[in-house]
Amino acid sequence: LPAVAADKIIVISPHRKSIQDEFVPAFKEHYKAQYKTDVEVEWLDMGGTSDDVKFVRERFSKNPNSSGIDIFWGGGTATFLDLGKTSQLAEHKLPADLAKEIPETAAGTPFYDKSKTWYASAMSSFGIFFNKKVMKLEGMPEPKLWQDLANPKYKGQLSVTDPRKSGSANTMNNIVLQSLGWDKGWELLTAIAGNTGKFTQSSSDPIKAVVSGDAALAMAIDFYAIPKVDELGKDNLGFSMPAGQTIVDPDPIAILKGAPNRQIAERFVNFVLSSDAQKLLVLPKGAAKGPKLAFLGRMAVNPKTYDETEGKRVSEIN
Q1: Which residue stretches of the chain are H helix?
Q2: Contact partners, residue 62, CB within 8 Å, separation at least 6
Q3: How many CA atoms lie within 13 A of 162 on its CB side?
Q4: Residues 163, 169: contact at Cβ < 8 Å?
Q5: Could you tell me whether strands 217-221 and 158-161 are parallel, antiparallel, or unpaired per DSSP bridges?
Q6: In 3-state terms, what secondary structure has residue 122?
Q7: If 0-12 CB within 10 Å is exposed, 13-18 middle and 19+ buried, where does residue 78 land?
Q8: Who has the most CB within 10 Å: 24, 146, 178, 224?
Q9: pLDDT(3) > 80
Q10: Is the pLDDT of residue 248 over 90?
């Protein structure tokens, strides 16, 4: 018998592998049950948000109507505002029942763009990730605020990602500037650079450095830090969200202009925002309807997810 051609979708994303490893199999399973056919997911990552954007833009420069890629997923709002400015995102209206579930804002932060070109797939918060054992050994105080990162005791012990390579590093620099103002903010960022052992290429590298003890602390996005604290214990690792200096930033998903597999792309976005798929973000590994391989430690954007996981979530944040 001839093989039945499966539906296909091409996703570009700077997301870490654990998100891909949970969402892709879940989408395939959902797709087969819902549409009675298989779906193939081709996952592209050029090494980080800015490299992914560059890749998409190069594809559009060769063909302004289509990059040949369906979905751009992850990398913070600034990335999607930029892609929107150059009209490289496609409008997508959610099905009415799903649209009712997704709020317009939380804590003053929009969950989608008015043009309906991108939607938050999760919310991210940012803070300081640190190795408690190393800090105790070196007699270093635990950090509470961004300003603490300027402490001369941390010289050479801080691991930070090059903000030209990483959307999350860029966002954290912006948070510092927004919290402290332009002059004081730049003063602090300069002091942080002075305490940095070396600037890394990827936002996951500082996490690895702190876990292995090569660095004592790092500026980090919550979903890199919280699962590590959960996995290796609060006696070993800490994650501090600076009080009064923390913002939440949407982690958007969007269909790119001229998506070659438009209908499947819409189905993918709708799936990612559904209350069932969002449970993969908040439930512990091995829980019913939760992730199979690793706790993802993210904030969901569908309130129904919180209602349906009460008492089962790892983090109390709602």
Answers
A1: 17-35, 49-62, 77-85, 96-101, 132-137, 167-180, 182-195, 205-212, 222-232, 262-273, 275-282, 303-308
A2: none
A3: 12
A4: yes
A5: parallel
A6: strand
A7: middle
A8: 146
A9: no
A10: no
- What average pLDDT does this structure show over 76-104? 96
Q: Which residue from 254, 203, 234 is spatially nearest to 92, judged by alpha carbons?
A: 254
Tell me which residue of 76, 73, 70 sits closest to 19, measured CA to CA: 73
Nearest partner of 19 among 265, 251, 256, 261, judged by Cα: 251
β-strand 196-200 against 109-110: which pairing, if any?
Answer: unpaired
User: Residues 151, 188: contact at Cβ < 8 Å?
Assistant: no
Token pair 């202009």 in the structure block, residue: 257
Q: pTM for the complete prediction?
A: 0.88
DSSP string for residues in 246-298: ---EEEEEEEETT-TTHHHHHHHHHHHHSHHHHHHHHSPTTSTTS-SS-----
For residues 128-155, give the mean pLDDT.
Answer: 96
Q: CA–CA separation, 313 vs 175, rounded Å? A: 27
